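Hey, quick one: can you model this chain's 3D structure?
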Amino acid sequence: MRRLTRREFLKLCAAGAIAVGGSSTLFAIAAEAFQKSRQSVVWVQGAGCAGCSSSMLNTVEPEARELLKKLINLHFHPGLTELQGFKSIVKQYAFARENRGRFILVVEGAIPKAEKGQYFVVGDDENGSPVALTEFIKKLGDMAQSVVALGSCACYGGLLSVKPNPLDNTGLDKIFTQNKVINIPGCPPHPDWVVGTLAHLILYGMPDLDDYGRPQVFYRGLIHNNCPRRQYFDNSIFATSFGEEGCLLELGCKGPLTHGDCSVRLWNNGKSWCVQSGSPCIGCTEPIFPNLTMPFYTRMPRIDLPGINSTADTIGLTLGIATGVGLTAHLAGNALTGRLAGWRKKGGEPDE
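Sure thing. Here's the predicted structure for all 352 residues.
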């Protein structure tokens, strides 16, 4: 049997820790390597609410101050600099040329592409010509070691791409054709997802990505699989108004099709998450968010089953059919094994 190198062992430990929500364990392992080689990061904001930056300030292990002072070298962030317009553009281009292939570009917010990007100008170049966000990101990205799309808007267009979308807001998947973009979707993304991805990039290079460019260590499983209300679903107990006990599928929960580890990692320093707070999952980590997950509080496309309804028009025909087949098989199995027998649709006590 081949022996693991120290580097391989640390990578295995880190991946295992972060997969089960052990962020403190992961960053205790990574801290030494970070301090020896601080990675330069250029952070650019597109069209959005700056919620992803706000989420990052809630990072616990490491804290935001430690992240900025010890772990990464944040060369530029529009909310943390006094440079604007011409001076900012010139400085970022100069930095990128001098550090070609040795910095990470983080992009937050959607990218307006209409009229060659002229609806979102970030400043002027050396000749006084306006620089569109699309041009700015493309030039920086081509010189970066890797590009991180932070938040659903930067990944796939997100809330800014809601139809009719007159500015043609889109994600980085429409800007870069090469396989160098890492998507960290969420509205906003969990701080651990961001810091953990940066940690992996610095220590080990590109993480394993799924078909939508998301790090598999965070987005491999479905929200539904580890939901604390899963037992209600298995026993066909569904809430029909907020505040009731039961699975939230009838109230629009998109957990059965949404990938992420929210239910085991939790938010706000491990205190809670959307479903625990009484809200259905709105599917914010998926490429179809929000155009095909709205209305948020309306059940998924109508599929008549014993004790369950879901919906194909809001999810899209293909996805709705796939969801329906899966839920049908799941409930049929429960019925055959007797797990549904003797349970009411509401409440949780067996019938006599």
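One thing worth noting: The first helix runs from residue 6 to 19.
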